[in-house]
Amino acid sequence: MKQPLIANFSQKDQSLVYELLTTWADGRLVLWSIDGPLAHYWSTQAWPLYLINQKTKLSPWWIGLTLPWRQLNRRRRLAKLVNQYSLDGLICLSWLDKLLLTGPARHLGLPVVWLELPEDATLSLPNWLLQYYHRQAAKVKIITFGRHLVDHLHLQGQSLNNCHLLLPALDPERHLSQTNLFSNLALNKQEQSDKAYFVIGAVVDLSITRPTEILLRSLKIVLSVIPSVQLVIIGDGPKRKELQRLARELDLANLAWFVGRQEPLDKWLSSLNGIIELETGKSQAWQRLLQAMLVGLPIIVPKSPLTADFLLPGETALVVERAEPEMLAQAVIQLQQDKLLSGRLAWRSKEWINEFGLIDRQLNDFVHYIS
Question: Which of 75, 112, 150, 343 can bridge 104 by disulfide, Cβ–Cβ 3.0-4.6 Å?
Fold first, then answer.
């Protein structure tokens, strides 16, 4: 597969595939996609791009009921693209293009590859449509970013042999330049301060309250043991004022900092002593975890099979059983008091990235799998 069509009809979070596909792609590859980072890159490069104008979110029920008509329509469009660009395969990024294009592509004789991302592990479809989805999965090659991301597909026999693990990775050159720049600024700021704080960071969606409430209550517990602790909450949303009010009620107004949405995130990592990640089922969260590992920032995370391939308990992350205030607080205290542990987490994280998590290795594996 040297000149495939890359299809993405619904995957908005393209964090885990962006660096891989933009590094691998050249002007011959065609992208058929919704708007997003990949489409912007293709447009900037003036590469073949067919943009999908996604005005409304379609219900899986409605898609299933109209599936034959939709597949016929996509087959005609796909056939034109194959003839126009001499396409030799199809790579699907989202559940919607997997449903709509796999059948038509196979009828046209194209090999099909599915990329399984963290969001796929929680895919929710009507049972009758899910059965059809599983049958299609058994007929294609699957490249998954985690061993347990494909559990929902119930692969067996030969279809299981067609499933390949592609560990998540990043390109250090795209991140370390920003990190190094802001590291110097952070060091200068720390030298000007008389107080030495133990600073924990977390990236949180402030459109919901529960994750931030958990973090604030864990901070309250930690404070009784580590008076110098601070929490930096990165993110924004309509619940921000409500959560700031909760911080004041817990007497944490001067210890919990709401700094809003920050891009690039790399600039904050160097000023933290650790990071808590409560969300393990989204591509963007995985990308954040890799960025933290790249610079050796200790990670605290609740146990999840989804991230078990790269978050190794006591080695590359401090893994707690559940995302509860008491458990997270105990982990923060342990991280602050056990210097050998924090040092091992930092060293092993960098080691894992250098051995398994670099874009060059991922790209080689990817090209091998699709060939």
Answer: 75
